[in-house]
Amino acid sequence: MATSGVCVISGLYTPEQCQAMHGQFRDLVQQIHPEWTDWERDFDHNQLFLSRKGMYRAGGLCHQQYVWDIRQDPRIVDIFAHLYGVERTELFVSMDSVCVRGPCVPTEQECREWYHLDQTRTPDPVCFQGFLSLLDMPETESPLRVWPGWHRVPILKDFPPPSHLVNYYPLPSSLEAKLRAYYPNESLERTLVPCKAGSFVLWDSRLPHMGGNSLQETLGRHVVYVSMQPKAWAGRWAAEDGVQPEKAHDDLVKQRCEAFRALCNTTHWSSTTLVINPPPPHPENWPGTGREGEFLREPTAFVPRPALSALGRSLVGLDEPMHNASRCSIM
To answer: Cα 28 from chain centroid?
Structure first.
């Protein structure tokens, strides 16, 4: 991890457990689209609610029970607790995306490179992020792709983004050319990170990475993204924003509780949670998209509220002490 910026923890879940969780997603899709009677033939990630390259960032799809079972799995939490040197209960979890694609021939747009960093303008602190893969991802499919070792290169110092609130930093080809010139001793070799079903893939948010862009996907892709950060980081940029740290902490906890209640997604950075997908507007507000009917099948209506363990509640912040209240009053 320290050398390349990425690692694979194999065998965390059995193939049978992975198939059962994959089946839960398929069952949900069947409820939303009963006309899709054959998964291999009918499932189209581009036609499922607000998908972008098979990434589901709305409609409650990131709050399915199996997704929360992964997030609140003590083994997963312990990985992040070890990396940050804190206790389990001292972490916030992101309410991050799920990516599912069936066997398909990706579109031209999906095959384009989109390397990026999930990092703010400062190289410190860092966000460790990962995903659990529920399907095998050999090199011929769409595994994670990275620039190994580049988490140690001060890209964000030399080419800073405009704000610390931006924790997504794209690396377009125009910037890549500058990077080659600015860091002539660094290799821009791309590396694939294949893995078996049940593996947890973990990387440093400063590492340039992207989801794969294979020309043919015969197995499909199903990954559940998980990232965590210490709760103590909640007010880290409060002074720069002109906000008291105590207020920053309370605002963050309220926002996280509200996101969970509304089944919304958040960004990777759980210490500066940004709700990225509030419920979409009514279809009439989306004229000319060609996808208006899709909004009539918002998955939230089909996603029951997930059951959380005591650890899961702590990871959300539902029982988090507040400076101006006893605890979050959302739930």
So the answer is: 20
Number of domains the chain contains: 1
CB 91 within 8 A of CB 230: yes
Say if 324 falls within a structural domain: no
Flag whether 157 is in a domain: yes
Structure tokens belonging to residue 84: 């940050």
- Enumerate helices (H) and strands (E) in the chain, giving the number of each: 8, 13
Phi-psi group of 290: left, alpha or beta (phi > 0 → left; psi -120 to 50 → alpha; rest → beta): left
Q: Which two tokens stand for residue 268?
A: 């990777």
Higher pLDDT, 331 or 68: 68
SS3 163: coil
- Would you state the structure tokens that stand for residue 12, as one six-digit string? 């965390």
Q: What is the CATH number of the domain that holds 218?
A: 2.60.120.620
DSSP character string of 36-79: ---HHHH--GGGSTTEETTEE-STTGGG-HHHHHHHT-HHHHHH
Integer Cα distance of 213 and 217 in angstroms: 9
- Write out the residue range of the structural domain in which residue 252 sits: 6-316
CA atoms within 13 A on the CB side of 87: 4
Tokens 């009439």 belong to 284
- Overall residue count recorded for the chain in this entry: 331
**325 lies in a domain?**
no
pTM of the model: 0.88
109 within domain boundaries: yes
Asked whether the predicted pLDDT for residue 278 surpasses 70, the reply is: no
Of 166, 101, 163, which is closest to residue 133 (Cα–Cα)? 101
53-104: pLDDT as tens digits: 778 777 788 999 999 999 999 999 999 999 999 999 999 999 998 998 877 7
Average pLDDT, the chain: 83
